[in-house]
């Protein structure tokens, strides 16, 4: 039987204290001079019991599900803001990947992908690659339905789409997407900007941060601060 999350947190807090760095520093200082005969007593006295290790392992397992949970909750909480009168959901993919479905959301009016990642504007090639893939798969999908890419803030993503990063770099780790580009475009496009300029009207890129303040609180605060200066 797995421990309750509250019990896991309590066990970990007993070991870490309010500041893990200080706790570890204290243990590192106190351990000097400990002998083989003293070791078991010292470890027990430091709070490093097996039950704490088990709690940490369980917390790591739970933490591995957080991104999937955020993705699922984010999509569900966006739906009331997205769906229009008369629009009906035909399929929804809430788990990791699309679980056999082509897109996160498909209705009788639209197909859509959601990305709840936080961009900071630095070297974010993995995030860029992921967003570009979603954009391309939407743009190239043969459907008369509207196509939407919903992001947690659009500033950095749009800067990337208008930028000069080489497509060879963006596609380097995705063989399937490389083949798609080679078959459809040959060497017509060299940079992200060139592809986006030719397909900018194919997909609507929309900001969901006003609907998900729990994920984007500081984004909204920064935006409000910028507007107050203008």
Can you walk me through this structure?
The protein has helices at 5-16, 20-30, 36-45, 50-63, 66-82, 125-139, 155-161, 167-170, 175-185, 192-199, 213-229; strands at 89-92, 105-107, 110-115, 146-151, 204-207. It has 2 domains: 5-63, no CATH class; 66-229, no CATH class. The chain starts with a helix and ends with a helix. It is built from 11 helices and 5 strands. β3, α6 (125-139) and β4 form a beta-alpha-beta unit. 55% of the residues lie in helices and 10% in strands. A 5-stranded mixed beta sheet has the order 1-2-3-4-5.
- Give the number of domains: 2
Residues in helix, %:
40-55%
Biggest sheet: strands, sense, closure? 5 strands, mixed
Element pattern in H and E: HHHHHEEEHEHHHHEH
C-alpha Rg, in Å?
24 Å
Low-confidence stretches: 218-230
What is the strand content? 5-15%
Mean pLDDT: 87
Gross morphology: elongated
SSE class? alpha/beta
Number of helices: 11
What is shown here, in short?
By secondary structure, the protein is α/β, with parallel strands linked by helices.
Question: What's the SSE blueprint?
Answer:
Blueprint: H1 5-16, H2 20-30, H3 36-45, H4 50-63, H5 66-82, E1 89-92, E2 105-107, E3 110-115, H6 125-139, E4 146-151, H7 155-161, H8 167-170, H9 175-185, H10 192-199, E5 204-207, H11 213-229
Helix pairs in contact: 1-4
